[in-house]
Amino acid sequence: MRDAHLRNVDLNLLRTIQPLLEERHISRAAKRSFLSQPAMSRALNRLRETFADPLLVRSNGIYERTPRGDRVLREIETIMRRLNAVVNDQEFSPAESRERFRVAMTDHGSTILLPKLLERLRKNAPDSELVLSAVGTHLTRSLQVGSISTFAQKRFRLRWKMRSFSNSISFVSLARANESGAADLR
């Protein structure tokens, strides 16, 4: 959404985008959404304006998703599940979760944290997905726009010598975006 502010977006379109992108057929998407075919066609045109992308393009007589349409579908599935949970006052259940967790880690952080994290995810949330990326220079911005959910990085190492033995402690910083979009360091 090119410079589109959420307040300018018709959130009623959220009801139509998932069926459209999944079905890739206006009439079937309309039926799933309890809309007429012309209403669904108008919704697709408005979605195209909102996202500044065709989302669906006709190829050999059928609609195909654009790369942006594929990305929007992946995101909207997660958003709609979360919205449904909020509306129905459902508590988070890891065993039933199909969330996509996006984590940025340093190489060192992934060596230390990733094996345990994967083990816990497989055991407690087997249907969830973990997407890893390298820690970059724009962590705060990535958190704010939602391209990552959290990041982990080694911040510093303290070393000290006391009598005959040496100690070393690594500090790990975790951050996530709060409701206002700012980064909370943990």
Describe the model.
The protein has helices at 14-23, 26-33, 37-51, 67-87, 107-124, 139-145; strands at residues 56-59, 62-65, 100-105, 129-134, 150-162, 165-177, 183-185. The protein contains six helices and seven strands. The chain is elongated. It starts with 13 loop residues before the first helix and ends with a strand. Mean pLDDT is 76; it is low at 156-186. It has two domains: 6-87, Winged helix-like DNA-binding domain superfamily/Winged helix DNA-binding domain (Arc Repressor Mutant, subunit A, Orthogonal Bundle), CATH 1.10.10; 94-185, 3-Layer(aba) Sandwich (D-Maltodextrin-Binding Protein, domain 2), CATH 3.40.190.
Main features:
5-stranded mixed sheet; 186 residues; alpha/beta; 2 domains; Arc Repressor Mutant, subunit A; two-stranded antiparallel ribbon
CATH class of the largest domain: Alpha Beta
Number of helices: 6
Euclidean distance between termini CA atoms: 31 Å
Summing up helix and strand content along with how strands pair, one would put the structural category as alpha/beta
The coarse silhouette is: elongated
Number of domains: 2
